[in-house]
């Protein structure tokens, strides 16, 4: 029998309040976001990306970042983070009392152009001093590397480019790189190839997987990542999100589907499924649209058609 | 880097017309089913489970099996099959000119009781002569083994029971056993453990995986199966199906999602994605309900919310 070593513990980074909500058309009131984040904390999630300190006009959905952080209390054992694109954003994050930020670039020049109006090299030149400044001030930095597998504008991304950029981001002082499947196109083969190569150049504990579930491959990709020893996975309650600059991208892997999967894989996860679904409900009510997760459909939706038939496999 | 050997070719057994439709509340007209099966053939699917020769009262949705086979022409290179529960069913299948049948039992006594009103042993005693008779008449036999991982009534199923039953079904003359995750609860860990043990007692080319996607784990389970060398996977166009006797079971793994996955995994699959979606559309129109697959949502639904925002991972 095939014996595959899998991690015994996994860390979930909840990105719903930031990556999820920034991609929803509707602007959610700060009060609702506060209730959402508080419910995620109550559920036991310990790493929560709460918002983004970008220019309010760039992402109006997250323009209330300062107000949201003012309304929240970060309990012991919980790490809040926020996306920060520049020094102005870093100042706002510091003022909000954040001790973890995230920066973002991509493995595709065409994507960074569309997304942040810079080439990859320009983005690194921008983020290098920003990361240094954050680290100087005692703030830890996660770096997102988008479109690591397929870019909607450029197509297939070479594995060595992802490995090289990951190493650079770590050398600049990021303590974690989130290898991101922005349009959710990757399969386990891509994970094994690209992340496998990344791990030739970076310690496994510094690599996270950020997966979207456009094609239903997200959990298969988690499994592939686990086989490589990856222990940090991003997810979003209710499967919120998408990506307007990435045609066809669906939401993030749903936190509740990841929890079921990990539980069934024998990985201990100290998160309460029901409370994650309650958190998803808060946003779903505000968006007036049901969450996309399998777990929500199973527990809250109606997918069973009871009949008198027999003989089922 | 981790190197995992995966099969280069995979066989898809399309079970939508049978397992899919028997679990839909609505009765689909024979004319629509004919168009559905013909579209599946046009798409390039070569193994199609068309219907079931059970008592019409047991599954009214498939009561038109004889008429459906009369309306269909089986092209060279395509293998039609039908579910057969007893001698009467076998006679009907023979009259319809079928050269492949399927029988069904489960790895849970409580499930077989609910499903076919027999214990596992009674079902084997029933099917043993039936399989022998079919083989005598030149008909090949697939055997479904339901609830191989989790039973909705009995809970966790011991791996050795599945291995033992699989061996028995092969010894009786079945040329293939479909190890079935009836409620879609399995994770790759379950696949590796149970199917791994099955393969200690059975040749890999005689084992198929029949997966449902209740918890979003189906493709992860395909990946686990492929790592064990499994080369035959069941799927259902549009993700049709469910199981009324298995609370919480969603539809089969969608054929179109499996095709995307295999393609991306580097496995050559000679099936036309667009035509599979067209097939799904035929049934969706008749059921007046959109298909459940990710691929359908992506290509026919609307999951993108274009906006002016930026900064996306």
Plain-language structure description:
Two copies of one chain form a homodimer. Chain A has 313 residues and is α/β, with parallel strands linked by helices. Chain A has a single domain, classed as TIM Barrel. Chain A has twelve helices and ten strands. In chain A, the strands form two sheets. An eight-stranded parallel beta barrel of chain A has the order 1-2-3-4-5-8-9-10, surrounded by eight helices. The longest helix of chain A is centred in the middle third of the chain and has 17 residues. The interface between A and B is large, with 84 and 84 residues.
Q: What topology does this entry show?
A:
The structure is a homodimer of 313-residue chains.
Chain A: E1 11-14, H1 16-22, H2 30-43, E2 47-52, H3 65-71, E3 79-83, H4 87-95, E4 100-106, H5 109-116, H6 120-136, E5 140-146, E6 150-151, E7 155-156, H7 159-171, E8 176-181, H8 188-198, E9 207-211, H9 218-227, E10 232-235, H10 255-264, H11 273-287, H12 294-299
Parallel strand pairs in A: 1-2, 1-10, 2-3, 3-4, 4-5, 5-8, 8-9, 9-10
Antiparallel strand pairs in A: 6-7
Brief rundown of the structure:
2 copies of one chain form a homodimer. The first copy, chain A, is α/β, with parallel strands linked by helices and 313 residues long.
How far apart the termini of chain A lie comes to: 26 Å
Strand order of the largest sheet of chain A: 1-2-3-4-5-8-9-10
| SS-derived structural category of chain A | alpha/beta
How many alpha or pi helices of chain A? Answer: 12
- CATH fold label of chain A: TIM Barrel
Query: Which residue ranges of chain A are poorly predicted, with pLDDT under 50 across at least 5 consecutive positions?
Result: 302-313
